[in-house]
Give the backbone structure.
Amino acid sequence: MIRLDGSRALVTGASGGVGRRLAVRLAEAGADVVLVARREEELHRTAEQARRAGRSAVVVAGDITLAEDRSRALQAASDELGGLDVLVNNAGVGAHGRFHDSSPDRLRAVFELNFFAAAELTRAAVPLLEKSDSACVANIGSVLAWRGVPHTSEYCASKFALRGWSEAIRPELRRLGIHVLHASPSTIRTEFREHLIERKESVPWGGRGGVSPDRVARRVVHGIRRGRNEVAIVWEDWAIVRAARAAPWLLDRALRRYG
């Protein structure tokens, strides 16, 4: 069980979508929040919503792929909030197109934000988190961390890495009193597609459906509170996870036509 009332949380990618709703939901649960993203104006909008819940909200505009900006965010948590109890690694980016038609730069750019930034921010945050009586690192992954699909190879690979890393550090950080949660949402109704690094083609199933960012945020905050290791959002997400484990050949056959 993680106590959120009176806690201090840092949320990356908090300028919109799931990150914004996570920040607001954490504030409503009683957390003061540090909000990190590149879009400063949108961060201030998130801060206004969080403050309506009666909590403090600190804005840190920056790029978390840069070590100096990660340091600024953690320093803000220490200076403005007095410490850190919850770190939410939410910031992420994707790209659409076949792997062999893309450049090495695209692969590295996706990994820099989706994996390396989260890993290095967590590494730097451990000295703050281990001082907490109730600490958690929440990594916002994807159902595509369980099953890779065509035309999103870089994104899938980065989310596989995030999930494997989450599992590996969970017992390590537990010794320090820090819990690790990994969330596996599927398609979410956000502006994610508008911020792709590159779109060489549309994914064959690329519609506008999906769950709301608030539904994802509610499930993640519930998972943090309950000390869950893994959170999925809707039953279809669990169905994909189970199919990837039990019958990968069936998914291979279904996805072959999209190659």
